[in-house]
Records
---
Amino acid sequence: MSEKPVEYSGPERVFSGVQPSGSLHLGNYLGALKKFVDLQDAHDCVYCIVDLHAVTVWQDPKELAKQTRHIAAAFLAAGVDPDKAIIYPQAQVRAHSELAWYFNCVARIGWLNRMTQFKDKAGKNSEKMSVGLYDYPVLQAADILAFKATHVPVGEDQKQHLELSRDIAAKFNNDFDAPGFFPLPEPLIKGPGARVMSLKDGSSKMSKSDPSDLSRINLTDEADKIAKKIRKAKTDPEPIPAEMDGLEGRPEVANLVGIYAALSGQSDQDVLNTYAGEGFGVFKPALADLCVEKIAPITESMNRYLADPAEIDRILAKGAEAAAAIADPIVSDVRDIMGFWKA
Ligand code: AQP
């Protein structure tokens, strides 16, 4: 009779990452950064700038370190406190790459073949994509599990990858007879801003790689640019409905209402209660004002941090040391569990 699997009983830990592959946008802020800040007071948090993920597509070597500092500045400006949470660049902690290799030997090709993000990013060119882009979710599992993280705040787009991390953790624990060694990490997705959509197309997510800059609000956009982008956002001729079912079949309108709700800390229904019956001539300027009110202080603070790259580098180096101190012993235990020779 097989024994019941032993559950992970270690401490809770939060882990998440953001790629240094372009300017951050409102979706990254609401789906990730804002949650990072909300979690840091009550939890042990590790926030990584995932440069190893970024290079799965071409990154200019002259820009990569600068982009990494840019993301660090966005973390700090959004309110992540390096005295409460660890902030560091992924490539500085070797445990990520090493554990990813071991997990490559645990994950199944059939699992990766089901990953929709690879299909979306590769499109018809999958044969020409890097092996790294295909393997991205395995590295993501290694990122999380190198810290035995139990909770992962991410946007809705990462749900499938998180499920894969759970599958890898469970298969490792089972294959190597190490019940409860790795936790099965829980995604923290729910809540406002989990899926911010493009301002031009309510069926695709707001994304750094969308060729149209009008599709997203960047954290570096100035007030008049934000107002212009919201003015030009796709809507329809109908007024704002009074009830949620009036948003059905109107994805662009639902998206703008959702953004307003997430930024103001209200529910979507609260926003409808305020603006029901109004046209976009009233709603869009109100949304633009709210976006500027929330984003301008972040942009200003980011610029202050970016003016002092030595301070950013000091924070990242200290963070990398703290991250390695957690992850290295965990990966060393993995080597022992897998039976590698050691002196
Ligand atoms: N539109 C979004 N709504 C809510 N959350 C989002 N996230 C990304 N887009 C949205 C969340 O932001 C975190 C960091 O994302 P990332 O930069 O590491 O990777 P990504 O998901 O690939 O982001 P982009 O902007 O869409 O980049 P590209 O265009 O390069 O693919 C993650 O938690 C993500 O869920």
---
Amino acid sequence: MRTKQFKSESKKLMDMMINSIYTHKEIFLRELISNASDALDKLYFRSLTDNAVGIAPDDFEIRIELDKEARTLKIIDNGCGMTEDELDQNLGTIAKSGSFTFKQENEKQDNVDIIGQFGVGFYSAFMVSDKVTVESRAFGADEAFCWESSGASGYTISPCDKPEVGTVVTLHIKEKTEDENYDEYLDQYRISALVKKYSDYIRHPIRMEFTTKEPVEKKEGDENAAPEYRDVTELRTLNSMIPLWKKAKNEITEEEYANFYKEKFYDYENPARVIHTKTEGQATYSALLFLPKHAPFDYYTKEFEKGLQLYSKGVLIMDKCGDLLPDYFSFVKGLVDSEDLSLNISREMLQHDSQLKLIAKTLEKKIKSELEKMMKDDREAYENFFKAFGMQLKFGVYNDYGMHKDTLQDLLLFHSSAEKKYVSLKEYVERMKEGQDTIYYACGETDEKIEMLPQCDAVKDKGFEILYLTENVDEFAIKMLGEYGGKKFINVCDDKLDLTDEEEKKALEEKNKACKDLFDAMKESIGDQIGSVRFTGTLKNHPVCITSEGGISLEMEKVLNSMPGAAENKVKAQLVLEINANHPIAEKLQTVFEKDREQLGKYAKLLYAEACLISGTTVPDPAEHSELVCELLTNA
Ligand code: ADP
């Protein structure tokens, strides 16, 4: 018998398998079961039109046999089998494995991930075996053949005795090593767990003889003797066969969905919502998605990995397919089962797969409309959901240059001055006062701190509602939106805030002009921290406030400068110290300016410090500030 050489690519792949240090070697079982299942499918479909097949639909099965002594694991199917030529062709060549192409292009990269994510079909058997034999008899053939290989050196094919149609793959499991306990692949519990994990939804039964111990009933008079056990062997079906997502919706209870979710996606709480859809047409797939009630502990860290499980005809091909979810919906858990994807598709090919893109697109729409529905018919649940994941949605608005803002803007909620409750942008605009053409917002650490901002008073006085932005990302998202429903957003601390009427405005302008020297003197004492000083008509009771000119607010300055790497490149908001024109301090400043320039400088610094504190930032020079206050108190 001649030993044949593997085709060169196959040999490389085989080497990779044999020497694999990959930690999830267990996926070999999934691969072999999938092959067996495909073979069963082929013969099953043939049996529908060809009586010669002679196998009843229910008799198609996959058997697993374990033999600890012989160290063998057999995967047996009564599917279509392979002829001598097919054994040679299919197992001697690596046909079309996308993962292999990927590997070649990225030779220097770690192969570890590639193996785990996609499987490399039949060859993965060599990760756990030092010899593999495949005995097969093709349907309609009069002879059976045995393919055998102990690795990269080559393989042999010889006739063998196998009366039934189908295939027996025998793995000679490697000896246990220090690093790897191969013995586990001979353990019935482990194998049964692996079938459940990866192949539960294969539509043919996967059966295995299971041996358990049963206590032997004691004879009379023997009550005190040590208990005795006997082995009981039964044939068990290891897989449940029908995937939950393939069942009709009305056959599934809420509890079944919840249990499935908790078990599969490791949550202790029921999901907030379930989306179960089946789509046929351009892309044929079923999807079962869950919106969790709470964020996983690592959700807002970079360890978190988004993605849906991806199945191809009931076989898990990828545990976290990130391409199926946009970042802003990364909280969604679930799975997609598609008829159109090949089992051995590589990540690289997957990214370019138009089917997958199509699926991702329709799923995105479904998720969005489910969230909108939840907001509408279960506001409390939505608000809880938003507390957990709202930040992600706001990042979504801001990221990618605002590309997704239209998708996301109606899902946002903010607290506001109207009630201490969440309001959506739509609700805000709908209840805007007549004549109001701007959406007002204010930023701060908490609602309470925002309410203390002097600028809020005047806006509220006019009867306008203010959105309270308390998270770092908020103002960036709002700026990205720019407007909503044709209404512009404005920060109440922006110098463009304009609540005064024309007459008042004119009067103020004159006053500001007249006091130019006073303001210049004040600015000089305060220094570069501010761009200018002026009177304002928008403050109610407070003497001073800080507003910002240009695009960057004081809040944004804080956020940007706290980001990693910001130390060398500090952002500076352009600040204006505004003085309440109607406050007694306005007049006082004018008198002091005329009498005592030095004193004016001190007043200016004190007022600036006060404005800083009330805006939620720190006093630039606390020691100097404390001295000035003491001096003032002593002289009073
Ligand atoms: P893939 O399954 O992606 O084609 P594999 O390397 O797993 O790649 O298998 C190669 C081929 O060998 C299969 O396409 C199939 O034609 C054949 N094959 C493998 N296992 C079996 C089996 N149990 N019965 C019949 N044919 C099989």
